[in-house]
Design a protein that fits this description.
The chain is of the alpha+beta class. The chain folds into three domains: 376 residues, no CATH class; 94 residues, Alpha-Beta Plaits (2-Layer Sandwich), CATH 3.30.70; 239 residues, no CATH class. Helix content is 61%, strand content 9%. Strands 2, 3, 4, 5, 6 and 7 form a six-stranded antiparallel sheet that branches. The radius of gyration is 36 Å and the shape is elongated. The chain starts with a helix and ends in a 12-residue tail after the last helix. It is found in: Cell membrane.
């Protein structure tokens, strides 16, 4: 038998060595550590349409590798000098592919020139409404234009646009509405008595790559420090995915260190104090290390990467994985001189297998949630638990051949006193009164329970970053990007027409103060139908040739034939009479009727480059575009899309929140299903009457944990319910350990409950510490486990008759 145990240990050691080599290669041998800090990657695909999900990903990564910096100073010269210095400092670091501080020299007229050929097809909303109303007088528009003051920014010349129609249309465009305007070859905004200058940079790699993050943050910090030193009074605001990803990684590393070191130190002190020797401590950690190593390798093989949630969760896994080795070490300590490694293994095997089965059941239900991060946590835990349990079966017996000293007397006495007190309180009439009292205490807590499914509770970004992003948004006019409209049509023309219908509603919201603005392609390149209708309005407003009969009017869709209705000489006379030079009037009249703007050609132009990501393209199913509402999230955004064909409001956060809510509601059914699955197993093992006593502690622990959460004002989330499933599995383990171990420790009352308390405390030291996590999801998870396991282990003695003194 001894040789067999040795063979199993050797095989297990070889397997762990191979896994360690594979894990080292997976973690460090492929260029970068595969730790995923992208929040979107942890979220499930929730959109009903694949195109909508593709649009979510496109928007998420369109600016994902861009760094936005805003330099502020009350002194105009210092602000501009600081921006130039910042740009040069960043450009010197190769972590940035490109840096834009100073604009290349260009004439603002270059932004107007591409539209001149299409000037008679582009009308602003106000001009369109004015021309459609009776009594419109183009001479009045001409007079207003001639008497208008000099225009800053993107402006048309008088001879190119004497009526101001093109100028009014340009004023509606994103580059004209932005508070940032070119000044001294910089993008500058003057607000609140100070100067703000925009500096942007594009990373040479992914924002979620650890190496890129560290280099980019170091470069930005060094450049900002230089600017603040050289230009006193300068403040640099920052935003970008790289800052959020780095903050999330730093928070996860802090949580890992907090949970890992405190739980490791606490477990070490407990094991040494209980077993009075460092040997059991080393063996327990060896078993746990085997579990964590296996879990990491399996997760990397299955998912190719490790999520932040899993990283912190893995540190907490120490406390549960060590339970299996604790039970074997306790059996050895209680056996004394009669210890036999193989017999000890046979003694604990039923309890460990039953405990493993209940734990795996809880994690398997967790794996059924269509949420990548939770699924990875479940796979991590299941593989880790399995490996830790196998280490007890295959590794520890070969290393624990000799007898050990008994458990420390003091902890056993304390455990016995607690076991007797709880056991007696739970018996007979006293037990029924105690149950009634606990029920009365729990009822107000249950009544106060609510729920919150907001996906933003998944992770909490630093308040300083959020504040800076909001300030940058307010100053630059950038949108929040969390909600957008997906517009679909059979072809380009129908897509643009549907976008224009949506934009009419959005503009109405802007007028009512419900929306700051929006960004859409149809505003910059209208549909052909819109352009032809505008062209017809202009033609109707200009002087006409009275010799052409009304019945001979050309259709609105034929711009060339409109020349017959609009008299060039009369148009020139109108312009000259209004005060325009004759040569300028003649030149303008010669441009009539012009040509419509072609969307496909415009999309390929340099002007469209910053907005090209809003076009989803065309395929056999049709075409699609994105419209971005700008400003704070507004619940009325859905009303703008109601009953508009081909228009869908896509809100990733709301979609995931709805999914969380749906699965939170399902979670109670899953918990009941897990209970139903465990009951027949326990009934088969302990008999139906004893089964009720075994199941009482974890069920009561769950009920009391819910009441405590209600008293604490904690709204229930999906993560609370996932933790309650684990309370059922882990809590049932403690009742199993007590039932299976008590017959072997009758000579030493309290010893088995002492080992159960030891297992529970190690679990609380790890999973309970998650309640201190900076990630709200893990905080909820840890707090629920802390309460549930705490109540369960205190109630475990009620699952057996009161303990009597040994004869």
């Amino acid at each position: 038998m001894k040789s067999r145990l040795t063979l199993h240990a050797a095989l297990f050691a070889v397997a762990m060595a191979l896994l360690a080599g594979l894990g080292a290669w997976l973690l460090f041998g492929r260029g970068s550590v595969p730790i995923q800090t992208d929040l979107l990657a942890m979220l499930p695909a929730t959109e009903q349409q694949p195109l909508a999900e593709a649009a979510v990903q496109r928007l998420a990564h369109a600016n994902g590798d861009r760094v936005v910096l805003l330099v502020e100073n009350v002194d105009d010269d210092r602000a501009k000098a600081a921006a130039r210095t910042l740009g040069k400092a960043l450009a010197a670091d190769h972590v940035f592919r490109s840096v834009m501080a100073e604009l290349p020299p260009f004439d603002l007229h270059e932004m107007v020139a591409p539209y001149l050929a299409h000037r008679f097809f582009l009308l602003s909303d106000d001009d369109r409404a004015a021309m459609a109303a009776p009594g419109y007088d183009p001479a009045r528009a001409l007079a207003q234009r001639l008497n208008a003051p000099f225009l800053d920014g993107v402006g048309t010349t008088l001879q190119d646009d004497p009526f101001g129609w093109l100028q009014h249309w340009l004023d509606q465009q994103p580059w004209s509405r932005s508070p940032l305007l070119p000044e001294d070859n910089l993008l500058v905004a003057h607000q609140d008595g100070g100067t703000r200058v925009l500096v942007t940079a594009t990373l040479a790699g992914s924002s979620y790559d650890d190496t890129v993050q560290r280099r980019a943050l170091a470069a930005v910090d060094a450049a900002v420090a230089q600017v603040e030193r050289e230009q006193p009074g300068t403040e640099v605001l920052r935003t970008g995915a790289v800052f959020y990803a780095a903050a999330a990684r730093a928070g996860a590393e802090h949580d890992v260190h907090l949970v890992g070191w405190i739980s490791t130190l606490g477990i070490a002190l407990l094991l040494i104090g209980m077993f009075r020797s460092p040997g059991p401590l080393l063996l327990a950690f060896l078993s746990t290390a085997a579990g964590v190593l296996t879990a990491t390798v399996v997760s990397l093989l299955v998912f190719k990467q490790i999520y932040l949630l899993t990283l912190v969760f893995g540190a907490a896994l120490l406390g549960e994985a060590v339970d299996y080795s604790i039970q074997y070490l306790t059996a050895r300590a209680n056996a004394g001189s009669r210890w036999d490694a193989a017999a000890g293994l046979r003694q604990v095997r039923p309890a460990l297998l039953l405990a493993l089965a209940t734990s795996l059941l809880g994690y398997a239900l967790l794996a059924g949630v269509p949420f990548p991060a939770l699924r990875q946590m479940a796979v991590f835990a299941m593989s880790g638990m399995l490996a830790a349990c196998l280490s007890v079966f295959w590794l520890l017996p070969a290393m624990l051949q000799r007898a050990a000293r008994p458990l420390s007397a003091a902890p056993v006495r304390w455990a016995l006193a607690l076991q007797r007190a709880v056991g007696r309180a739970g018996q007979g009439r006293r037990g029924r009164w105690l149950a009634l009292l606990l029920l009365l205490l729990a009822l107000p807590g249950w009544q106060r329970l609510g729920h919150d499914d907001d996906v933003h509770l998944l992770i909490s970004p630093p308040a300083s970053l959020v504040t800076q992003e909001h300030r940058i948004r307010d100053i630059t006019g950038l949108g929040n990007g969390s909600q957008f409209y997906l517009v679909q049509g059979a072809n380009i023309e129908q897509t643009l027409q549907r976008e224009e219908l949506l934009e009419q509603r959005l503009q109405a919201m802007v007028r009512r103060g419900q929306l700051a603005d929006w960004l859409g392609l149809a505003r910059m390149a209208p549909s052909q139908a819109r352009q032809m209708a505008d062209h017809a309005l202009i033609a109707r407003s200009l002087p006409a040739d009275d010799t052409v009969p009304a019945s001979g009017e050309a259709p609105a869709g034929d711009p060339a034939s409109l020349r017959t209705r609009t008299d060039r000489a009369r148009l020139q006379s109108l312009l000259v009479a209004g005060g325009l030079r004759s040569d300028a009037a003649a030149g303008y009249a010669d441009t009539w009727p012009g040509t419509p703007l072609d969307f496909a050609r415009w999309l390929e132009s340099p002007l469209a480059t910053p907005f090209r990501y809003l076009w989803m393209g065309c395929n056999a199913q049709g075409c699609a575009s994105i419209v971005l509402p700008q400003g704070d999230d507004d619940a009325q955004l859905q009303s703008a899309a109601d009953r508009l064909p081909g228009v869908t409001l896509v809100d990733k956060a709301a979609s995931v929140s709805q999914l969380f809510g749906r699965y939170r509601r399902y979670a109670s059914l899953w918990l009941f299903a897990a209970l139903v699955l465990v009951v027949p197993v326990f009934g088969w093992r302990y008999g139906w009457r004893s089964m009720l006593r075994v199941m009482l502690p974890p069920v009561a622990g769950i009920a009391l944990a819910l009441a405590a959460l209600g008293y604490l004002g904690q709204p229930l989330t999906l993560f609370h319910w996932m933790a309650l499933m684990l309370v059922l599995g882990v809590g049932a383990n403690y009742a199993v350990f007590l039932h299976e171990g008590e017959p072997y420790t009758a000579h030493r009352p309290g010893a088995m409950y002492a080992s159960v308390l030891l297992s529970a405390i190690t679990t609380l030291l790890s999973f309970g510490l998650l309640s201190l996590s900076s990630m709200p999801a893990l905080h909820d998870f840890g707090l629920t486990l802390l309460l549930g396991i705490g109540f369960t282990v205190l109630l475990v003695p009620t699952s057996r008759p009161p303990v009597m003194d040994a004869p």
